[in-house]
Specification:
This protein has helices spanning about 35-45, 50-60, 65-85; strands at about 5-10, 15-20, 20-25, 30-35, 85-90. The longest helix has 17 residues, at about 65-85. It has about 90 residues and is of the alpha+beta class. The protein is globular, with a radius of gyration of 12 Å. It has 3 helices and 5 strands, in the order ββββαααβ. It has a 3-stranded antiparallel sheet with strand order 2-3-4. The protein has a two-stranded antiparallel ribbon with strand order 1-5. β2 (about 15-20) and β3 (about 20-25) form a beta hairpin.
């Protein structure tokens, strides 16, 4: 997986922002997942058809974090979301 890979949101996932967190409901399993504000920003960019690289651009503008660390963290999160079938590689 890399920063420019196409990703699609699973058709079985419903997302809502609740109290500063993005809550994901996997309708297939009935399981909830919570994303912190940074993960929520990633999800919002992907929801609009963007890439992980575009999400990193937006997040880097708002947080004091090294670009390498941010990219590694975002790719790790994407890997977890793909593993749980909340995101689908496109």
């Amino acid at each position: 997986m890399n920063l420019t890979d196409a990703l699609a949101l699973s058709d079985d996932v419903v997302a809502r922002e609740v109290g500063g967190e993005t809550m994901l409901l996997d309708l297939a399993s009935g399981t909830y997942f919570g994303l912190d504000p940074v993960g929520g920003r990633l999800w919002a960019v992907l929801e609009q058809g963007g890439t992980v690289a575009q999400a990193c651009e937006q997040i880097a503008a708002d947080y004091d974090v090294s670009r390498d660390q941010l990219e590694a963290d975002m790719l790790a999160l994407v890997g977890q979301l793909v593993e749980r079938r909340l995101l689908v590689p496109g």
